[in-house]
Design goal:
The protein has 15 helices and 10 strands. It is an alpha/beta fold. It has a single domain, classed as TIM Barrel, CATH 3.20.20. A hairpin with a 5-residue loop joins strand 9 and strand 10.
């Protein structure tokens, strides 16, 4: 208890926690105390009483993937009858609908398709920008790392080609847990932890901002969660390129990992700890997609200052049997009922307009 009280005092005073101290908080601190500390950190970083959201669409350009991640219920093999690569007509329709609904960006991600080369990706970006004025938040680090290997290019060369074609920022997907012993168990064919970090390091150096994520609640241990947070914090110290951090819980249905779904309390505990530890990342996003609207609202008292996307379309989590939906009007109502102003933002967390019911 003496160690816990010392760590609580340090966190309350704004001190930076080391691995041991963060683990003590995760394992021993009372949940509401963690929430209070996280909320104080949130107010220090974002004193304005506003909660942000973005209007966008998650477009999966292909579900064909060679990674075979055990946690994924969305992917299909190369010759599977349900496999697809999006057509230009479908892509055009999805983006136009997004813009018509007030969207400002698209989240463009897909499976690691072994037959799609760099020309496909640059062509996709060029097609989008030829027809639309919209921000493309696209291609997670595993997609980029695979593409660089396939084309025998350096990561920087691959990223420069994508930037030249119109890539505007990078989502933080594919991080899972940034510990290779865990990655070998859940996604052995995907980028290593260091490869994920190197893509982000290079992207930040080239001027691309990105988010960062963590998927927990499968085979990791508490120490692995702490290691993940420390690696994100260290890279942010180095580059300053992460706009936000988004932790969410693994959804086990229809997957090949026999895990017990984590509780809302466990989610809030990790969310709050993330806000306390990541003292250099500006924003923390609540995951209503996996937690539902009520817990997302509670998350606003546990360090989160953003509700993410209205998500006009989402396929990956839905494939795992989770189908929470949150229209913009309901998102605004949740924010206002929690005592905050609802503000639509862009990808860089610039405020676009205040929205009220």
């Amino acid at each position: 208890m003496h160690d816990l009280n010392r760590v609580l005092d340090k966190a309350a005073g704004g001190g930076r926690l080391d691995r041991t101290e963060a683990l003590i908080l995760l394992q021993k601190a009372d949940l509401l105390t963690l929430g209070e500390l996280a909320n104080a950190k949130r107010r220090a970083l974002n004193p304005e009483p506003a909660v942000t959201f973005v209007v966008d669409r998650n477009i999966n350009y292909t579900n064909i993937c060679m990674s075979g991640c055990r946690f994924c219920a969305f992917f299909r093999g190369v010759n599977h009858s349900d496999g697809y690569v999006i057509s230009e007509a479908d892509l055009h329709q999805k983006i136009q609908e997004t813009i018509d609904l007030g969207g400002t960006q698209i989240l463009l991600q897909g499976g690691i398709h072994p037959e799609l080369g760099l020309d496909y990706y640059t062509g996709l970006l060029e097609f989008i920008h030829q027809h639309f004025d919209i921000h493309v938040h696209g291609f997670s680090p595993p997609e980029i790392a695979f593409l660089a290997r396939k084309e025998n290019l350096k990561t920087e060369e691959t990223l420069r080609a994508l930037i030249d074609a119109g890539l505007n920022s990078i989502p933080g997907g594919g991080a899972e847990i940034l510990v290779d012993a865990i990655r070998q168990q859940v996604s052995p064919n995907k980028a290593t932890a260091e490869e994920w970090l190197e893509v982000m390091r290079t992207a930040h150096r080239l001027g691309l901002r990105s988010s960062a994520t963590m998927m927990f609640g499968h085979v990791e241990q508490p120490e692995d969660i702490i290691e993940h947070l420390m690696r994100i914090r260290a890279l942010q110290d180095e580059t300053g390129g992460f706009t936000a951090f988004i932790p969410w819980t693994f959804q086990p249905d229809n997957t090949r990992i026999p895990a017990v779904k984590r509780t809302a309390a466990e989610y809030l505990r990790v969310l709050a700890l993330s806000r306390i530890v990541l003292d250099n990342v500006g924003h923390l996003q609540a995951s209503w997609v996996t937690q539902g609207d009520k817990i997302a609202q509670v998350a606003l008292a546990f360090g989160a200052d953003d509700l993410g996307s209205t998500m006009i379309e989402e396929n990956v989590v839905a494939a795992a049997g989770v189908t929470f939906r949150l229209p913009q009007s309901e998102m605004v109502r949740l924010i206002q009922n929690a005592g905050f102003r609802a503000v639509q933002r862009d990808c860089f967390y610039n405020h676009l307009r205040e929205v009220s019911l």
